Request: fold
Amino acid sequence: MERAGTHLAIEHLFRHEYGKIVAYLTRKFGVAQMKWIEDSIQHALLRAMQTWPFQGLPLNPSGWILRVARNYLIDQFRKRAKNAKDISGLRDELTHDVGSYPDLDNELKDDLLRMMFACCHPQLRMESQLILTLKILGGFNNREVGRALLKSEEAVAKAYTRAKLKFQQLAHHLEVPVGKHLNSRLEAILKVIYVMFNEGYNSISEDELIRKDLCFEAHRLTDLLLDQPLLRKPKVHALKSLICFQSSRFDARIGQEGELLNMESQDRDLWDRALIQKGMDHLQIGYAFGNISEYHIEASIAAYHATASSFDTTDWESIYNGYLLLEKIKPAAVITLNRIVAESRLKGAETALRSLEDTDLKNNLKEHYLYYSVKGDLLEKMGIMHEAIRCYLEAIRRTSNRSEQLYLEKKALKLKNIRLRSHEKTG
Reply:
C-alpha cells in the first residue's frame, strides 16, 4: 500500500472507529482508565502507520486497531501494577480475547451510544460536554473544536483536560439514562452532531472544502439515535432532515478549478433528489408531533432552498422570516449574517448593508472570512467596487481553505477588471 493510501485509511479509521473503540475499552476497563485508553489507541494507530504500508491493509482494520490497542493497554496495566490486587478487578478483561465476542460491530455501536450519553452528563457544563464528545467520539483536533466553539486551540486543550478529569469523577458507568435525564443529554448530543456536520460541510482544512468523512459520520450518528425507539424525537428527525438537505448539494458546491460555488452558481441538476426527498420525509415526521426546535427551522430554511426550481424563484421571504425566528430562539452571529444575506435578496443590498452596519457582527466575526465576504458582495451589488475589493481581500486573509480563497480571488479579480476597463474608457 502506498504511504498516501495508508494515511487516508488511518484518517478514515480515526474518524469512524476511534470513538467506538474508546467507548468499548472504557466500558470494559472503566472510566478511570481513559487516559491510558486514549494512549493505547494512539499507539495502535501509530503501529498501523508503521506496518500497513509494508504488510498491506488487514482484512478487518478496525479489529486490528482494537486488538493492538487492547494488548498495549493490558501491558501497561501489568507494568504499573505493584501487586496482583491492583489488577484483580480487571482479571476477566485481562484474560478475554477480543475475538471471542460474537458480534463486535453491534457491541461497538451500543458502546458508542452509551459513551455519547455519558459524555453529556448534566453536571458537566454544556461546553465541557461538547468538547468531550467532539474530542473523544468525533476525533476532532483542538483546531476544529476551537473553530466550532470560537475558542483558541490552547483554550480547548486546557478545557479538555479539565472536562476529562470531571468526567472521570462523575461517570462511573456507561449507560443510557431514562426519563427526564434522557432529553437533556440528547440535546447536547444533537449539538455535537450538528457541529460535526458543519465542520465537514465547511471545513477549515486547507485542501478540502468538504470533509465528507465528518458529514457521513454525522449521518451515521443521527441514524444511530433514530434506531432507538426512545430517541426518535421530533428534533432528531429535524436534524436528520437538515443534514440530508445540505448533503444533497455536495457534488454541486465545487467548480472545475476547485473553487467554491455559491448557490446561485450551482448546477441544480447535480443536486441529489433522493436525499432531498429523504430530507422532506424526516422534516414531515419532525413537524407531525410538535415541539418545534431550532433544527426544524434550519431544516425548513434548507428545504426552501432545496425545492426551489431556480435561484431566482427561491422563496426569500420565507427564508428571511425563518432566520428572524431562528435569531429569537438561538441568537448567534452567523445566523444574523445569514438573515442579512436573505434580507439583501428580499429588500435590496443597500437595506441589508445598513442592517449589517447596525449590528456588532464586525467584532463578533472579526476573524471569520464570512463577514467580509458578505459585506463585499453587498458593496459589489451597490456598485462600490473599490470597497468591495478591499472586503474580498480581507476575507481571503481570513480563510486557509483553498476553495474559499479561489472563490474570493475570482470575485476580486472580476471587479478589478471592471474598474480597469472603466478607467480605460474614461481615460
Q: What stands out?
A: The longest helix spans residues 402-426. The CA atoms of residues 146 and 155 lie 8 Å apart. The chain has a mean pLDDT of 83.
